[in-house]
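Hi F.,

I've been meaning to write this up properly since the lab meeting, where we talked about keeping a consistent format for the predictions we share between groups. The idea is simple: the sequence comes first, exactly as it goes in, then the structure tokens exactly as they come out, then a line or two of notes. No screenshots and no reformatting. I'm using this chain as the first example so we have something concrete to point to.
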Amino acid sequence: KSAIVREAAEEDNAVLVDIRLSQYDSVDLRGFPGVNKETQKTVWFAPATLPFVGNDAFPDDKLIYLFLDEANSASPAVSAVAYQLTNDGRIGEHVLKPNVRLILAGNRESDKGVTNRQPAPLSNRLTHFEIVCDVSSVSDHATRKGWPAIFIAFINFRKPLLKRFQGPASA
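Output, unedited:
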């Protein structure tokens, strides 16, 4: 398993860590158990994919967005770990860096994707937003970013295509 890490918009001076929870097992987030040879006690080796304190692969001087996608498609065991991460900013002894901000995302049942009912304790600790796509906002964004005028004209001419979702073809 590897997280997708990429620089966010340069003007934001931020890093985005993209993790698809539905593809993870709880041990992928918790780390790997081992034995400390000096103390003869079990320790958990932190996963390299998360921005925990002590993980130098992630910067201390930039904002880090930890994006946990497909949060409501995760197994119950992974949801429990996500709950601890969301509630406490840690998993076991591994603590998120102070410059980390969590974002969770998932599909609605009506989107016809794989979804599980989100545990109430996790759901209650989140602020929920439903993202909607409208032609005016997309056109404004495209104009600001210098996207081709033909794209902007097309989505304004064929507005329904912007929101059209076609699921997998039936066999």
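Notes:
Helices lie at 26-30, 76-88, 120-123, 135-145, 149-157.
The radius of gyration is 20 Å.

If this format works for you, I'll send the rest the same way.

G.
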